[in-house]
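COURSE: Structural Biology Practicum
ASSIGNMENT: Worksheet 4, Part C
STUDENT ID: 0417
INSTRUCTIONS: Below are two proteins. For each, the amino acid sequence is given first, followed by its structure token string. Answer the questions at the end about the second protein only.

PROTEIN I
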Amino acid sequence: MERWGVAEPELIEAFGHVRDAWMSEDLDGWIGANRFYPGTVDAINFSSRPVYIITTKQTRFAQALLKAAGVSGDKVPVERIFGHGSGSKISTLNKILDMPENAGCHIQFVEDRYETLEGVSLSMLGAPVSLYLATWGYNTERTRKRAERNPLVQTLSLSDFCTKMQ
């Protein structure tokens, strides 16, 4: 970014345009390059609790992926998808906690980036939020070992995730 004199917002916008073009030219190809882990779609669709998606992707891309994968729009309506530009994951968790329909609820926040969980764990101390590192996601064995030493973060396998969603 420094070498080419490009700022992060410009790159995010450029990536968005590339994704939009790919989707308009080859939606099946784009969807195929962004598959869900086995069992996650059913886990979301059959969840007994409300599901919120907090992602670094723009909302329109997350919505397209969820729809193509067969996630029910009733289970995860667009107002429960918080994509890029919705604020930090910490501020988004606070927004969700502040929603009247979530009064008294306990959030189970699943994330595959440990550094994000470290920040959330300190900022959300005392909040009704449990933090989970998705061991099947974007992390390494070394990172998972760090998470196992953190008393505020639990590691979560894919099969345990699917079970917890029931």
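PROTEIN II
(use this one for the questions)
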Amino acid sequence: MIMAPLFAAPLLAASLAVTVATAPLDPGRAAGSGRAALQGRVDATTDCIVRAIAADPRSRQASADPAGLGELIVDSMPACATTVREMIDAWDASYGDGAGETFFMGPYLDVLPTAAGRLLKAREGR
């Protein structure tokens, strides 16, 4: 039974990563839960990164070029360092030291280009 928490964190990470790529979690459905708090941190981090990318003049070209979008994501990190740190800290508080960095460097960054691309296109459509 000691193994159960080892599987819970990756499963939650994967579900949150998919949520980031598709749509935000309905806060009314999970109000007050730890998952809602983590999802709020993920959403805030993603929003910060997308705002930083959208403010960059290179963003219009990057939306058609995944490599360019990756470069803009990297360039957005200093502006979003506080928000990224808060997300990592929230994961660490829920799942133990190192869980936040593992989530950020793994599932989160795996889906971030897709999620950011979709959110940027949605912003352009407004």
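ANSWER KEY EXCERPT:
Q1: Helices lie at 4-22, 34-55, 59-62, 66-76, 81-95, 99-125.
Q2: The chain is about 80% helix and 0% strand.
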